[in-house]
């Protein structure tokens, strides 16, 4: 009989992943570091028009692009003369499951269906669970969602409880786990027991599914302003959102659009800590995922991650929790849009960045998400307050994750804070170098790392 | 409270005991077990809270665990208004009213 203890299952990780993906990763695993990234993405046998057709049949995509005129006016009132870029938002909440994640799920599950799987499994505490469950429902596929929900007292924060409820509504079996990275072990066991498809967020399908989002932005901005946007901001966690959007922008010919990632800064809180778990007020789109996944993408449930943000990200901006809650209020009160947390991270970044840019320039915030019970600042901050977190007005700069949330005392407080990209890029190169023998540091490795980090081959050689 | 076969219930089980969890975890996480909760239709004829029961999940998969609730509430809600945010919203609306319209 097959052993199901932790060590035995983890030892079978490679074979379980391979049989549950319907993708042959072998050609991409020959070298410890380098592989042909475009060939990996090329495993998706559809061009972008075909991807759009698959998604249209699933009710996904073609969401509205909305200009946020009042927020732009507010930004201009704080800017010097001639500054204050126009801000637009892509209303991804209009997708079937209420977020852009429907795009990733639609193409992944189309692939699962084509490959003959009867069901799908996904490990996520985010909007992706509902997206997979929703797309599975449309295709008569079984769906299991493995979620990290509770601390050891059985307490979960409202935002995650809502995400679990949404999965159940679409008919998924939801395995709700307490805090810990061994969620992966439970996930592997379900894959083994069921023989279902691993609807990972990180396959080429899950990334190619986001490309139409970038493509649509260019089409819609051309109609609205006559040109591709100057900046697109993506809320960044695992990296698929930014990677797929950037690829879509390029496919639409927007070579000069700057691509910026934005995350909530949760430095100081440990992602695997039972006690820190309910002291973060954003459950995704934060640095706890964003920094490690940017610095080393191959830490997921697939052998090679197709989401590789350093290939595309030009800047990485960090926000305070209080700033994002504040922008959520701004969006509701000045634009009449109540939306969930994810896109509002990018919106806060856009608001600060707009003030540095020229008034004839444009910024697109590339997502919104639905707002249901549990997802609002009222739910998340009431929960925080009941657990002793102090909620204050003032300068968010002084906020301490896990102790305080500081709602800005004016819109001028929202800041542009760059994370040092050079450090992030060098970190990746160093880690890669440590995996290769000294005498095997050849031109192919240099070129791969140059592509991987957008650094020059000369810089890479210097670092190696 | 007694629950019966075909009731929609929630069960709980320990996936990993603390001594089975990886040593790399933070101490506070490794001090507690990895737990799982799942809902399903009860298969066991009748049971009290705390009993071991069999359930059939929405997908028809059978699972066994400790009965912890019959049709549990989702429980999450909208919370209360946050006065600090309400005040911020009021300030912003006033600010916009005083701001000259652009041409």
Automatic annotation (TrEMBL), chain A:
GO biological process: alpha-amino acid metabolic process
Family annotation (InterPro entries): AKP_thiolase_beta, Cys_Synth/Cystath_Beta-Synth, TrpB-like_PALP, TrpB-like_PALP_sf
Acetylation is among the record's keywords: no
Pfam families, sorted: PALP
Keywords: Pyridoxal phosphate
Cofactor(s) listed in the protein's UniProt record: pyridoxal 5'-phosphate
Annotated ranges, domain Tryptophan synthase beta chain-like PALP: 60-365
Signal peptide stretch: none
Protein name listed in UniProt: Threonine synthase
Organism name: Salinihabitans flavidus
UniProtKB/TrEMBL annotation, chain B:
InterPro entries per the UniProt record, alphabetical: OrtA
Pfam family for this entry, one: OrtA
Top-level taxon: Bacteria
Protein name from the UniProt record: 2-amino-4-ketopentanoate thiolase alpha subunit
Annotated source species: Salinihabitans flavidus
């Amino acid at each position: 009989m097959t052993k199901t203890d932790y060590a035995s299952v983890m030892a079978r990780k490679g074979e379980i992943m391979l049989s549950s993906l319907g993708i042959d990763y072998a050609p991409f695993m020959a070298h410890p570091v380098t592989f042909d990234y475009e060939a990996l993405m090329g495993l998706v046998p559809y061009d972008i028009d075909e991807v759009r057709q698959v998604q249209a049949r699933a009710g996904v995509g073609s969401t509205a692009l909305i200009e946020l005129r009042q927020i732009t006016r507010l930004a201009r009132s704080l800017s010097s003369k001639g500054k204050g870029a126009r801000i637009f938002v892509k209303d991804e909440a209009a997708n079937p499951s209420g977020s852009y994640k429907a795009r990733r799920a639609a193409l992944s599950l189309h692939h699962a269906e084509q490959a003959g799987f009867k069901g799908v499994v996904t490990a996520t505490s985010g909007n992706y669970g509902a997206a997979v469950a929703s797309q599975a429902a449309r295709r008569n596929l079984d769906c299991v969602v493995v979620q990290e929900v509770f601390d050891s007292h059985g307490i979960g924060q409202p935002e995650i409880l809502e995400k679990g409820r949404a999965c159940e509504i679409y008919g998924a079996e939801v395995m709700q786990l307490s805090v810990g990275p061994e969620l992966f072990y439970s996930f592997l066991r379900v894959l083994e027991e069921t023989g279902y498809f691993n609807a990972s967020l990180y396959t080429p399908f899950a990334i190619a599914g986001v490309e139409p989002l970038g493509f649509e932005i260019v089409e819609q901005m051309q109609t609205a302003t006559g040109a591709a946007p100057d900046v697109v901001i993506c809320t960044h966690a695992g990296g698929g959102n930014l990677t797929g959007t950037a690829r879509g922008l390029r496919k639409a010919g927007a070579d000069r659009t700057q691509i910026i990632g934005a995350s909530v800064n949760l430095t100081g809180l440990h992602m695997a800590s039972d006690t820190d778990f309910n002291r973060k007020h954003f459950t995704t789109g934060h640095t706890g995922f964003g920094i490690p996944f940017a610095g080393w993408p191959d830490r997921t449930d697939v052998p090679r991650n197709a989401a590789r943000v350093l290939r595309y990200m030009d800047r990485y901006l960090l926000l305070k929790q209080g700033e994002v809650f504040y922008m959520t209020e701004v969006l509701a009160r000045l634009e009449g849009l109540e939306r969930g947390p994810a896109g509002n991270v990018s919106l806060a970044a856009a608001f600060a960045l707009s003030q540095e840019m020229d008034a004839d320039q444009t910024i697109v915030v590339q997502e919104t998400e639905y707002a249901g019970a549990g997802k609002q600042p009222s739910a998340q901050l009431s929960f925080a307050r009941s657990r002793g977190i102090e909620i204050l007005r003032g300068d968010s700069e002084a906020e301490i994750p896990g102790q305080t949330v500081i709602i800005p005392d004016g819109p001028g407080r929202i800041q542009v804070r760059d994370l040092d990209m050079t450090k992030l890029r060098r970190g990746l190169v160093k880690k890669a170098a440590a995996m290769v023998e000294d005498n095997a540091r050849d031109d192919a490795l240099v070129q791969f790392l140059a592509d991987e980090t957008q650094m020059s081959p000369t810089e890479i050689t210097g670092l190696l | 409270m007694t629950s019966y076969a075909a009731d929609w219930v929630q069960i709980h089980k320990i996936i990993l005991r603390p001594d089975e969890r990886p040593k790399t975890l933070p101490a506070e996480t490794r001090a507690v077990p990895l737990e799982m909760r799942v809902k399903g239709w009860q298969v066991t004829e009748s049971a009290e809270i705390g009993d071991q029961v069999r359930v059939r999940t929405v997908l028809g998969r059978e699972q066994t665990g400790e009965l912890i609730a019959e049709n549990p509430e989702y429980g999450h809600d909208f919370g209360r208004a946050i006065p600090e945010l309400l005040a911020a919203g009021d300030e912003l609306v006033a600010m916009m009213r005083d701001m000259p319209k652009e041409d």
